[in-house]
Write a structure and sequence with these properties.
- The protein has one domain: Ubiquitin-like (UB roll), CATH 3.10.20.
- The strands form two sheets. The chain has a five-stranded mixed sheet with strand order 2-1-7-5-6, covered by helices on one side. A two-stranded antiparallel sheet has the order 3-4.
- The protein contains two helices and seven strands; from the N terminus they run ββααβββββ.
- It is α+β, with helices and mostly antiparallel strands and 90 residues long.
- The N and C termini lie far apart (41 Å).
């Protein structure tokens, strides 16, 4: 069983149309690095100057990584990482 990253609809074109991608890594950062290795086109959607874009929220099993250990949050097989773009409007 691998770590799975859920890809939101606006980013699926850069992820080969996949809604979910299996990755490897011991932390959220390592898992996202593996995702970018598989789909380099996602880099500009997720990161700016090496930092996660402020409008991209990352959840590990429904918990926001901002309240965990951020990009250093440990992950193991079976974990689901969800990428959730912030929605704004009026």
């Amino acid at each position: 069983m691998a770590i799975k990253i859920q890809i939101p609809t606006p980013m699926r074109e850069q992820a080969g149309g996949n809604a979910e991608v299996a990755v490897a890594g011991a932390t959220v950062k390592a898992a996202l690095d593996d995702l970018l290795h598989q789909f380099p086109g996602l880099a500009t959607k997720l990161f700016d100057s090496g930092k996660l874009r402020p409008y991209v929220n990352v959840f590990v099993n429904d918990e926001d990584i901002r309240y965990l250990d951020e990009m250093n949050t440990p992950v193991t097989d079976g974990v689901v990482i969800a990428l959730i773009p912030a929605v704004a409007g009026g």
